[in-house]
Design goal:
By secondary structure, the protein is mainly alpha-helical. Helices cover 47% and strands 9% of the residues. The structure holds one RNA strand.
RNA sequence: GCCGCAUUCGUCUAGAGGCCUAGGACACCGCCCUCUCAAGGCGGAGAUCACCGGUUCGAAUCCGGUAUGCGGUACCA
């Protein structure tokens, strides 16, 4: 029998890190077993579901490389696969039929209780939490009478008695008594629309799902699903409840306490490879000392039986480290393509601040990247690292220009001497081979620390104190610009000296 | 409250009765490299394996209890 698993996000928010992790594990399991991975949108909560969120989820999964074999394509494009439609809002027929069946077999019944009724029952019998069952035994005549009065009703599923047991692939045997489930379960609202616990089972049956791999937050709800599978005459799928991804305070990862939107990580310059790698390591481990895994390697090595049962804090530091590792492993051309938009955005930001800029192109960036790759924990770090090349009317912050041990006069002479040396060296020998020895002996002659001179040059050329090595910066800038900026900066140092 | 699940360095984890004086990675600290920032190399500190009791010649590993944490308990998903 071929395995079929699924991810069933609800488009009530942007793609969540937790959803992505669950999707990843399902995807890996499917690839691993030669099975099928289905994507289904659980949009039964029409009030909160939107097409924008749906699109965000689809985009995010594509971006991560977590591709599904069956499911909806982009919004407004036809579904892919034989079990469609893949949006619950379009599957009303299935639910209506299933409810009809349960009703006709008396496995479900209409319930006319008002919120006040339920509250009264709860107060009267505090020992039993959940629904009292006062509508469970209504006769057909009593039901008709209530309908005649125009009282609205929900549909409740009879839970029955005894204990529910099932085996979980990561937690082993789980057992719970039916009486602990909160009373007969509402499966359809008074307006007739079906509820999550019900539709999820109907769809998993209709789509032939063999393995339900999802977050541990669903573990307590699983007994309800088991009962529903049985009532609907279906064979039980296998369950695997994944450990939760946690906030630093060990509660379930949430928007309030953590950054949960996959799209936000993407905007910040995290690379899909790093996100995938990090998510895989939250709850799964290979068993050996390796910690860098590509999606392809994960498809090869993932093993559901090596999934941990306890929750894992989302460690942002580790993600950052992995991100740096993956950025440095990308093919140069690929890195250029991915990093360019971040550089362009930074430069556009400078333009918006009133600077005269040149828009970077692929051709501009390609030769510059080698000098910054190992300085990029994230792609968005490329802005401060290279913007000075594209901002033509660079402004130098006087507070940064003077090295700690230098006064303004020394800085002025240092930069002026440097300019002279560069000029005398000429454009043909403009490079570290000739310039570096020359500048070093300049320092020796004046008794300067090399670091001080280089820092002054660095700030003069880039406006920043953390940059690539200065001779690489010079060649990135070009001969003329280097001379111009050195001149401007020594002039500025002179002005500071005059003021003092 | 009730029910369920979990519990090895700060964090992610290795560990399936002797290989554990508990291994790796991130973070942290130090040194090296060095024109800044990184990256990289080397080293260090960091866990009485939640606690108590039991089984066993021997337990992080098996069993029981306790504690703590988290999750669920909707006409949300």
């Amino acid at each position: 029998m071929t395995t079929r698993c699924r991810i069933a996000p609800s488009p009530t928010g942007p793609l969540h890190i937790g959803t992505a992790r669950t999707a990843l594990f399902n995807y890996l399991f499917a690839r691993q077993t030669g099975g099928t991975f289905v994507l289904r949108l659980e949009d039964t909560d029409q009030a909160r579901s939107t097409r924008e969120y749906e699109q965000d989820i689809l985009d995010g999964l594509h971006w991560l490389g977590i591709e599904w074999d069956e499911g909806p394509e982009a919004v407004d494009r036809p579904a892919r696969g034989p079990h469609g439609p893949y949006r619950q809002s379009e599957r009303g027929q299935h639910y209506a039929e299933a409810i009809e069946r349960l009703l006709s077999q008396d496995r479900a019944y209409p319930c006319f209780c008002t919120p006040e009724d339920r509250e009264a029952d709860r107060l009267a019998d505090a020992a039993h939490a959940g629904y009292s069952g006062r509508c469970a035994t209504l006769t057909p005549e009593e039901r008709e009478a209530r309908r005649a009065e125009g009282r609205p009703s929900v549909i409740r599923f009879r839970l029955g008695e005894g204990s529910v047991e099932f085996d979980d692939l990561v937690r082993g045997h789980v057992s719970i008594d039916t009486s602990q489930l909160g009373g007969d379960l509402v499966i359809a609202r008074s307006d007739g629309s079906p509820l999550y616990h019900f539709v999820v089972v109907v769809d998993d049956i209709a789509m032939g799902i063999s393995h339900i791999i999802r977050g541990e937050d669903h573990l307590s709800n699983t007994p309800k699903h088991v009962l529903l599978f049985r009532a609907l005459g279906a064979e039980l799928p296998l369950f695997a409840h994944l450990p939760l991804i946690l906030n630093p305070d060990r509660s379930k990862m949430s928007k309030r306490k953590s950054q949960t939107a996959v799209a936000t990580y993407r905007e910040q310059g995290y690379v899909a490879e790093a996100i995938v790698n990090h998510l895989a390591l939250l709850g799964w481990s290979s068993g050996d000392d390796a910690d860098l895994f590509s999606l392809a390697e994960l498809e090869e090595r993932f093993d559901l039986s090596r999934v941990q049962p306890s929750g894992a804090i989302f460690d942002a530091d580790r993600l950052d480290w992995l991100n740096g590792q993956w950025i440095r492993r990308l093919a140069p051309a690929e890195l250029v393509t991915r990093a360019l938009p971040f550089l362009q955005r930074a430069v556009a930001g400078a333009a918006a601040d009133g600077y005269t800029v040149r828009r970077p192109t692929v051709e501009d960036l390609a030769p510059l990247l080698p000098m910054v790759v190992e300085r990029l924990p994230r792609l968005d770090a490329i802005g401060p690292m290279l913007d000075f090349v594209f901002v033509e009317d660079l402004e130098i912050d006087p507070a940064l220009l003077l090295p700690k041990r230098w006064d303004a006069v020394t800085t002025e002479t240092g930069l002026a001497s440097t300019r002279r040396i560069v000029e005398e060296t000429g454009e043909d020998d403009f490079g570290a081979e000739v310039l570096e020895p020359a500048l070093r002996s300049l320092c020796e002659d004046h008794g300067w620390k090399v670091g001080d001179l280089f820092m002054a040059i660095r700030v003069a050329l880039t406006g920043r104190t953390a940059t690539p090595p200065i001779f690489e910066v010079m060649s990135a800038l070009g001969y003329e610009t280097t001379l111009d900026r050195l001149a401007a900066a020594s002039e500025l140092a002179g002005a500071i000296a005059a003021e003092e």
